[in-house]
Design goal:
mainly alpha; about 25% helix; 3 helices
């Protein structure tokens, strides 16, 4: 019986194999051109990043002029305030100077530090586990 099996296998192996059908490859979808992204610094705790993109430029700093006080005379300021519904209240310069001098002559109170409360003693007993979830019901 073993001889016919070998003969059949030999016949199957010697049978001509048809070539695989030629299938045209599907047209490749047009992929967008890759965008070249410059490396960006990454903030990682404990490490200093030394790489920076070359395209970053620091703009020139512009020195702004110092702001100058521009006091308005009270006669020009009153109509603006009245239109806004406000009332101008002024302090006499002599009273203001007197109050500033009085505060400067008073001794500053000594700072008293905060008194910390006495903490209760720590418990040395063993810990006890407490269940916080309800126990499952037997009928569920």
């Amino acid at each position: 019986m073993s001889e016919p099996v070998i003969a059949e296998v030999a016949m199957v192996a010697s049978a001509p194999v048809p070539p695989p059908p030629v299938v045209a490859a599907p047209p490749a979808a047009l992929a967008p051109a890759p965008v070249l992204v410059p490396p960006t610094p990454i903030a990682v705790a404990g490490y200093a990043t030394l790489r920076t993109p070359e395209m970053i430029t620091v703009p020139e700093t512009v020195a702004l002029p110092m702001a100058q006080p521009a006091p308005l005379p009270v006669d020009q300021l009153q109509p603006v305030l009245e239109l806004a519904g406000l009332m101008l209240v002024q302090t006499e310069p002599s009273k203001h100077a007197e109050a500033v001098a009085r505060l400067a002559s008073e001794p500053r109170p000594k700072r008293t530090p905060r008194e910390r409360p006495i903490l209760p003693p720590l418990e040395e007993t063993p810990l006890v586990q407490v269940e916080t979830r309800p126990a499952p019901r037997p009928d569920a």
